[in-house]
Amino acid sequence: MNTIIGFIQNIPLDLILIQTVNGIVTGMILALVASGLTLIFGIMDVVNFAHGELFMLGAYVGVVVFAMTGNFWIALILSTMIVAILGAAMQILTLRPLIGRDPLTTILATFGISLILQNYVLWQFGPVARKISEPITTHFNLFYLEYPWYRLVIAGLSAALIGLFWVFLKQSKFGVWIRATTQDRVMAQAMGIPVPWVYTGVFAIGAALAAASGVLFAPMAGVTHTMGLDWVLKAFIVVVVGGMGSLGGSIAAAIFISLLEAYAAIWVSPAQAVIVSFIVLILTLLFRPTGLFVPTPK
Amino acid sequence: MTTAPLEKPTSIAKPRLSHNAIFWIGFCVVMALLIVAPLVLPVFWRRFLTEVLIWGLLAMSSDLLIGYTGMVSFGHSAFFGLGMYGAAAALLLFSPPSLWLAIGFGLAGAAAAALFVAYFSTRLRDIYFAITTLIFSQIFYVIIFTWTPVTGGENGLIFTRPHLTIPFLYDARFTNATMHWFVLAVVTASYLILRRVTRSPFGMVLQSIRENEARTRAIGYPVERYKIVAVMLSGLFAGLAGVLYAIQNEFAAPDFVYFITSGDTVIFNVMGGIGTLVGPIVGAGFFQLIRELLSRLFGDQFPYLIPLGVIFIVMIIFLPQGLLGFARRWLNR
Amino acid sequence: MSATTPSPEPLVQVDGLHTYYGKSHILHGVSLQVGRGEVVGLIGRNGVGKSTTLKTIMGLVNARQGEIKLEGSLITHEAPHRLARRGIGYVPEDRRIFRLLTVMENLRTGFDRKGVTEERKKALLDKVFAYFPVLAERRDQAGGTLSGGEQQMLAIARAMMLEPKIILLDEPTEGLMPRMVSQIHQIIDALHKEGVAILLVEQNVPLTLEASQRIYIMEKGMVRHHCATSEITIDDPLIKQYLGV
């Protein structure tokens, strides 16, 4: 009993608060990445193994545009648009021919794409990490730390992007098309909705979300050809824990897992803190396999 | 026996080889070639062939799941890796290093991993299964990578090759040739065992699960249990491949546990032809061959995975039956 | 067994259609025609291929053999969404409205097309709400919360938003109360007055005979008889032969 009290007394409150902020920031980016994944899966039934590479590609395109223009925001916007177009091209070339076939084939095809993208980037840019400098370099005082404003901006922007996307889905014409296609692909066609193009559009949007996350995240860490792998794995965990196909669930799961990992990082190394997400996954699979943040199906 | 006087004489049937006969003839021919290989090939290609066999075994084990049960697994790197590290453990802990202990430990390690993965993943269908196997193989990777005191962490483990010992008969160091023959023997035995399994009633149930899981369950088969056994069998042979790799190369590294290895395995499967057992071995060979070719033509730094990735995708779209399937159709014309 | 001659260039012409579901040969060479603004009935027992004929015309099912023409141009393997935009509306057997979308959103899927001005959209909505006042009341409700009859109306209204030249109506009165059945009859008449052609598949023979100008009788995937509705009554032995129990 005493050891527990001692343990609790020793928890540094300020560290916890700092890690809470960190957790939320990472969580929001993770939520943005996972949203794209959930979107593509929920609507097209495609597990996009190349999603992490789209994230990485976004960051690299951002690096290139930033080097040319010196402006972070232009890099963000251009990168998002360019990767969206690339995503559309990917879908048209490799996924459209596979519509109607075993869902296994799309997993394999997107896996193949991820290999190509990763190696291409490695070939062109080399293994040394690239950097994009932060657009906002001011800090504020969070306890004894000088906490960068930029991180809060990232969290805010990610939330804004997700929110924008949600509104788009509910209100806009294309959003109605997407929702109609998800519910009844056949009748959507009978109503004149060009379903093959809806799929392409959805994939492009998912790619755009991933690319935006990549550029936003880039100043926080280096841009390397493997950055996609770590994020995609976590994104998949988030999607499974949040309930596959549930946008709200993914967002909640993303923040939940990131917070837990941030807290764990107080005591163990970041490489080991990753195990937290694995544990959450295992527990979810054991007790609520449909998703932690999804109401249990009756 | 006398035939009735007015019966027509039975016509003489045209001599035709049964499928079985064709198989065994082909099998013997291939075996003969593979046995003779180390005696005629230059050193590099000898090792190349041996490695292709090992990767082929790994791919074959994965085919049991993908091709016969219809479950795509990205977890084979974990089974392979644990087989490798298990063998490493046996070779480092016991002196003199024993071949059969290495195999035993390796298989045990792989079996444990397979049981763990099977327990959690088999309750999920298709896509979820694939993702969770991927995640689990990463879990093993992280554990091996960070648990440096036990696993050597980033640097892996180095050890010496054990002697090739056949109890009471033989005890000597491996030569290139005997190594090759040993691997060949193990892979061939595995192939024959797996072939037997896929043709057995158990194998039939697996294929029925692949065709229509709901119906199989409705008929009354405990589908989850079959799946778990399938994963374990698959894991065992994958682990065996890991043991062979460890013995051949005398090191164990965490890179092999990274899910890319699983990805490569799936590529071998698709390229060679899923559901054929032999196909994956052909696929592994094809992949390594092209890789070698590209590196000779364009140099070591050339990202061989880019053209291979493109070939892979093109094959998925246009040649879903893989090389073997294509060859079969071509031969049947 | 005389037949009225349809107008020289029929709106929709189907010739020798053969359709398969996997290995099952469902349509064995179906041929029929629908003229501009005509209401044509397609009747027959369950399972003879009436719905399949509509689905094949709409491109939802692939025809292995045969031709389908819309205003003279070949549309046999055209994609469904293009056919919808070219003026073929489809109201399926089980209504299949978008249950999670509101009534308004369901209707939107029909008029969110290129070249439709805001005024035309408003005019279309007003027209449809005049036909189906109940839909106006429930415009912000989710489709799945409507009753069976209301869903049928929504399904027809949704097709009307396409401003179609022809509507393929598959068993609209199935499962509806008699009061609603007569409402459907009125809607078909109103559409006919507007010049919209209708290919009506129905089990309700009296309704079909009253609402259509011509009928086709199908059996076992083929058209067996075809005549003007003025030449046949409900007691006709042919009706008993192909539709009787």
Walkthrough of the structure:
- The complex is a heterotrimer of chains A (298), B (333) and C (245).
- Chain A has 298 residues and is mainly α.
- Helix content of chain A is 74%, strand content 3%.
- Chain A has a two-stranded antiparallel ribbon with strand order 1-2.
- In chain A, strand 1 and strand 2 form a beta hairpin.
- Chain A is globular, with a radius of gyration of 20 Å.
- In chain B, helix 1 packs antiparallel against helix 7, helix 4 runs antiparallel to helix 10 and helix 8 crosses helix 10.
- Chain B is globular and about 55 Å long.
- Chain B starts with 18 loop residues before the first helix and ends with a helix.
- In chain B, 44% of the residues are buried.
- The model of chain B has no long low-confidence stretch (mean pLDDT 83).
- The relative contact order of chain C is 0.19.
- The interface between A and B is large, with 38 and 35 residues.
Task: Sum up the structure in keywords.
heterotrimer, A: 298 residues, mainly alpha, two-stranded antiparallel sheet, 13 helices, globular, B: 333 residues, 4 strands, 73% helix, 3% strand
Topology, pairings included?
The complex is a heterotrimer of chains A (298), B (333) and C (245).
Chain A: H1 2-10, H2 13-44, H3 51-69, H4 72-95, H5 103-125, E1 139-142, E2 145-148, H6 149-171, H7 173-183, H8 185-190, H9 195-217, H10 227-242, H11 247-264, H12 270-273, H13 275-287
Antiparallel strand pairs in A: 1-2
Helix pairs in contact in A: 2-6, 2-9, 2-10, 2-11, 3-4, 3-5, 3-9, 3-10, 4-9, 6-7, 7-9, 10-11, 10-13, 11-13
Chain B: H1 19-40, H2 43-69, H3 76-93, H4 99-121, H5 126-146, H6 148-151, E1 157-158, E2 164-166, E3 170-172, H7 176-199, H8 201-211, H9 213-219, H10 223-249, E4 251-252, H11 259-272, H12 278-298, H13 305-318, H14 322-331
Helix pairs in contact in B: 1-7, 2-7, 2-10, 2-11, 2-12, 3-4, 3-5, 3-10, 4-10, 7-8, 7-10, 8-9, 8-10, 11-12, 11-14, 12-14
Chain C: E1 12-21, E2 24-34, E3 39-43, H1 50-57, E4 63-70, E5 73-74, H2 80-86, E6 88-91, H3 103-111, H4 118-131, H5 133-137, H6 148-160, E7 166-170, H7 178-194, E8 197-202, H8 205-211, E9 214-219, E10 222-228, H9 237-243
Parallel strand pairs in C: 3-8, 3-9, 6-7, 7-8
Antiparallel strand pairs in C: 1-2, 1-4, 4-5, 9-10
